Amino acid sequence: TETVSKNFIEIEIDKDLASGRFDHVQTRFPPEPNGYLHIGHAKSIILNNDIAKEYNGKFNLRFDDTNPTKEKEEFVNSIIEDVKWLGGEFEDRLFFASNYFEEMYEKAVMLIKKGKAFVCDLSADEIREYRGDFKTPGKESPYRNRSVEENLKLFEDMKNGLFEDGSHVLRAKIDMASPNINMRDPVIYRVARMTHHNTGDKWCIYPMYDFAHPIEDAIEGITHSLCTLEFEDHRPLYDWVVRECEYKNPPRQIEFAKLYLTNVVTGKRYIKKLVEDGIVDGWDDPRLVSIAALRRRGYTPEAIRNFVKLAGVSKADSSIESAMLEYCIREDLKLKKSRIMAVLDPIKLIIDNYPEGQSELCTMPNNLENPELGEREIEFGRELYIEREDFMEVPPKKYFRLFPGNEVRLMGAYFVTCTSVEKDENGEIIAVHATYDPETKSGSGFNARKVKGTIHWVNAKTALNVEMRLYENIVDEEKGKLDENGNLNLNPNSLTILKNCYVESCLKDAKAYDSFQFVRNGFFCVDAKDSRPDALVFNRIVSLKSSFKL
Ligand code: ATP
Ligand code: MG
Ligand code: MG
């Protein structure tokens, strides 16, 4: 295990433990179930999970499901799956903020009784207008000085459905002159007749995020409530709610910078449009960076974890190159996966001096850099497929692959010399002909002469006919993410579908998410949505080469 210096959050936690402010650590990941998780959420999951683990504390998964409009059961299930997949160890600590509605209501009543909250009849527009801005102080609501009795009665009426949606709100009574706008009598409850995925039609009033979130944290005994930077200005309100609601174990909010990737689309709005316009095949399209998409593409939790660690935790916003994510998956798979021969753009290679009907087995290491992966046998025969680009009739200088008269090594098999090329009436190449030298079998120790080129191949008789999907960034990287109208600059070549590709027959039982290195072509995985046992579909996870250097 490596020693890394502590991030600023760990340093704060160390201080809290040293000063006795806390004697243990409890964290949480609090998603709103209103969409799929993306790579940015992975940062929060891994950060919270790992901090709990590091300090022998606990980590909760809590759905912040206090705003029913956009929340769906479908998202709850996908989020649970993704958090588990990423290694979030919440075990049985799965919570729903909606289960705390009763306590939130009671705390609101408590605030009213303390004279710290009032029912306000101003409209949303009026409230905004009265609030002022950072230059203008706010103006007090004419309803601010209602009596406790009147407020209790009105709040109960709000709860009992006597008021129209939007007509009344409960507001915290704090300070309309505060330089922090969040403290200017923020709304803490609103009337909204919406069916909630958990509580159904039980409630027609719902708490606002800034009131609900600190209560959720306090109820669960969260010690360190880690959130993203945009909530920094909300911290005084967070602390106010915890204090005025008289929680004895005030959690501490600490903010960190969001994870952003250059030229990567994470916004729900954009992804929704891509799905609706049929540009991507759902939220798990392998070109997206939702966790589901990354999983389908063939990313591993280890690679994502490593990426998040490399990105680090900081207090300043910055963007990370998506090439770093690719670097992480390459590094993760490099030694773990078998290196298989697959031909993406096949032409036939016929070995004319190899006896018809004959075949033999060649033994190949599964991964030259990792002997632990063992060996496999490949059937060699008279008719093979090689990559179209591994043959040229008229080669340029320094082309060491197949051309008439040249000899190359067929990986794991024999030396072959190209003798001729066969074309159809349009001049298209149908087959390349060659002869092999029986003395040169790989592993035989033959070293009488050397060749400069080695090419991969598959056996035409036994290879599996498969589909390959190659991906590029969905965003045009030259133009940048957005055009002047705020629309995505789409890369027209983000998906290439190759039919009639061939892979070694050893992949016949490959299952969804299984991944391999296809020599010279990249890392690929079996697509979980469209692949069938008799018609395999592979996604290219990433190519082998990269300009990215750590
Ligand atoms: P989005 O709008 O992208 O879905 P969100 O903030 O609405 O993001 P939530 O469901 O509220 O999503 O997020 C759950 C947790 O994940 C929050 O604590 C939030 O701060 C954190 N989070 C969201 N996006 C990022 C990001 N890009 N980097 C790090 N943490 C993030
Ligand atoms: Mg969200
Ligand atoms: Mg949010």
UniProtKB/TrEMBL annotation:
Family: Belongs to the class-I aminoacyl-tRNA synthetase family.
Domain spans labelled tRNA synthetases class I (E and Q) anti-codon binding: 454-527
Keywords associated with the record: Aminoacyl-tRNA synthetase, ATP-binding, Cytoplasm, Ligase, Nucleotide-binding, Protein biosynthesis
NCBIfam families assigned: glnS, PRK14703.1
Residue ranges of every copy of the Glutamyl/glutaminyl-tRNA synthetase class Ib catalytic domain listed in the record: 25-334
GO molecular-function terms, A-Z: ATP binding; glutamine-tRNA ligase activity
Catalytic activity: tRNA(Gln) + L-glutamine + ATP = L-glutaminyl-tRNA(Gln) + AMP + diphosphate
EC number(s) stated in the UniProt entry for this protein: 6.1.1.18
Top-level taxon: Bacteria
GO biological process, alphabetically ordered: glutaminyl-tRNA aminoacylation
Upper lineage: Bacteria, Bacillati, Bacillota, Clostridia, Lachnospirales
Listed name of the protein: Glutamine--tRNA ligase
A cellular-component GO term for this protein: cytosol
Residues covered by the Glutamyl/glutaminyl-tRNA synthetase class Ib anti-codon binding domain: 339-437
